[in-house]
Design brief:
By secondary structure, the chain is α+β, with helices and mostly antiparallel strands. It contains eight helices and nine strands.
């Protein structure tokens, strides 16, 4: 692994941004795997950011986290009696470029410090979730897993800091090989093609209230229709079996047996082998497909 100290590559600098653009960073793994709560939320969104097509503007929550990160680190270090230095760690494998901007790294025991400074401190959803369940949001957990993967570490300190009350909440994260293998596989697929095939379709994530209401109603109706379709299929098969190949009518239902011609397989017509059929194709049609996700 390649270790770059913060003084040599300050977070937020143009040099730092250039490194990020050509490397899959730990903070981006949530978007890579489609579990991020914030933009970018998808691999396509991530690709557009890395290519400069779109830009994420710094918001107040991000500024708050950056402002108090040093204070949070100092408190953690005081409690632990040791120091963790901010560094950027990059993998040496150029075919799968991965990296992580570590809020803190201790070389002596190869442990990592990840700091979060939520605006609401001890009343934030993050603090409450960690305190009550001993777990963290999936995108943060995956971020920690990539940090350990890149650093070859087995232990990470997840430190949630309450600025107002100058208190911290600690969660220890251990390396998970299965998750790390999934992360490596996802980045391998991402970098294999630019853009990867899976990114070519631009799917817009929406949270518009009108959409959400109609989407819920559609899912409910779709579930009922699927149940009815399954029942209809079974009854249809029963009627066909009872008819024994004979057209029948009764009970308000008519069953007609007929034979249709098979489709022409144009690829088997020798005379058409070198013929460009595209010029005979009609105008494109627009189709819409709905599915439950």
């Amino acid at each position: 692994m390649k270790i770059i100290k913060d003084k040599d590559l300050p977070q937020g600098s143009q040099e730092w941004l250039d490194v990020r653009s050509g490397c899959g960073m730990a903070s981006e793994v949530g978007a890579l795997l489609g579990v991020s709560k914030w933009e970018p939320k998808t691999p396509l969104g991530l690709y557009k950011i890395k290519t400069g097509e779109i830009k994420i503007e710094t918001n107040f929550a991000m500024e708050h986290g950056n402002k108090y990160e040093d204070e949070a680190r100092e408190m953690f270090e005081d409690e632990m009696g040791a120091q963790w230095e901010p560094v950027v760690i990059l993998t040496e494998d150029e075919s799968i470029p991965m990296g992580a901007s570590l809020d803190g790294w201790r070389e002596d025991d190869n442990t990592i410090l990840e700091i979060k400074c939520p605006l609401k401190g001890a009343t934030s959803d993050l603090w409450i979730e960690v305190a009550e369940t001993g777990r963290m949001p999936e995108q943060y957990w995956l971020q920690c897993q990539q940090q350990m993967l890149v650093a070859g570490a087995t232990k990470l300190y997840f430190w949630v800091y309450d600025v107002k009350n100058t208190s911290g909440l600690l969660q220890i994260v251990k390396a998970d090989k299965k998750a790390q293998d999934s992360i490596t596989e996802a980045w391998t697929k991402y970098w294999a093609q630019q853009p990867p095939e899976a990114l070519k379709e631009d799917v817009l994530a929406v949270d518009d209230e009108a959409w959400l209401v109609k989407a819920r109603q559609w899912r409910e109706v779709k579930a009922k229709l699927d149940g009815l379709a399954s029942t209809e299929k079974l009854l249809r098969e029963d009627l066909i079996n009872i008819s024994k190949g004979q057209s029948c009518i009764g009970g308000g239902v008519q069953l007609k047996h007929s034979e249709a011609k098979g489709r022409v397989n144009y690829s088997k017509i020798r005379e058409l082998t070198n013929v460009n059929l595209e010029e005979y194709r009609g105008a494109p049609t627009i189709k819409h497909y709905l599915r439950v996700t």
